[in-house]
Amino acid sequence: MKRLATACALPTTLARAALRSPAAARSLAATRALAATAPRAAAVPPLLALATTLALVAGAPTSLAAQDSPVTVTVIDAGSGAPIAGATVEFLDPEGRRIRGGFTGANGRISVSIEPQPGIEIRSERIGYARSTTGTIAWERALQGVELALSVLPIALPGIAATGERRCEGEATDGGLIWRVWTDARTALRAALLTEEEELVRFRAESWVQDLTAAGEVHEVRERSSFVTTRQPFHTLDPELLARDGYIQVEGDTVTHFYGPDARALLSDAFIDTHCFTLEEGTPGMLNLRFTPVPGRDVPDIRGVLHIAEGSHELREVVYEYVAQRAARDDLGGGHIRFRALAEGPWIVEQWSIRMPLGTGRVRAWLFGTPVEREAGGVVRSIESIRRP
After folding, report:
1. pTM attached to this predicted model
2. Is the dihedral angle over the CA atoms 161, 164, 167, 169 positive or is it negative?
3. Fewest Cβ atoms closer than 10 Å to its Cβ: which of 89, 99, 174, 249?
């Protein structure tokens, strides 16, 4: 595998400016549903006791106030003037929090009904383009329609990672390329977050909890359900709590919770501050953006890779595994999140899983066919509807 860029820490100031989620000010309350537990074997250290933390989240679409006014935003290519389909458009309040948002159609336009208020800013971005904002706009201008022009991002931006604290091995000589690829991955994550929070896509999904053998075969299905929702079927802890306490957290003497990342966690300052990044060639047509905990992390963390399409720079999948310096074993489990961009613009999490080890050793499991891991996961089976703002 050819390494394209050395490990580096994304510059803190740049990463925070580029990756800050409009929903970052809202802390996500920790939910613990879909929990699977098993008795702890005497020989198993507390770290390997079993639990999973995933949650189904339901909500009702936001209703529009009677005094809302329609605003049309057109997004174009700054070079050619051609309309850009599938670009995100967000209306932000003076504190940078999203009020409303959605995606442009084939004509590069989106019409949003929004309550007139001072200090509104409109922001747009799309994979392959630099983000563009209007700055604070007068409401009279908004009623007449707003046009945003997006400029194509260069393939690499040398020297961008030359400032800021660097806490990883190697020199960030190709940090600009890492930043460029991460910028597009971040755009996809923000699009998935926008799709969920605005409840733009209604889909039918199936979820399960099952035990796996050492060969990866299903030993027993413990739970299985089918449901229709507009919300991402899982969430995790607040990113600051994950950075402070780790992705594996012990509760009492018999239960340990294994938390996986979601889009909000991956976009957070806390994740950027505690991980190093390395860019490599993956399978044909793919780039691998690897992340590892910064040296000296003394809490359970995750390492993994973002699989990104080389031509389109679209984020396809995040695969991760748990790591802990004081763990009694290496096979701590892991998981994956697979993303899908819909033709209409929105992004969804199409498939997800999180795996936790059971107390059975792998040698004994191979001999007797007993399960070694418990997996909680799910998949989107069909798209029911897509809502325009």
Report:
1. 0.77
2. positive
3. 99
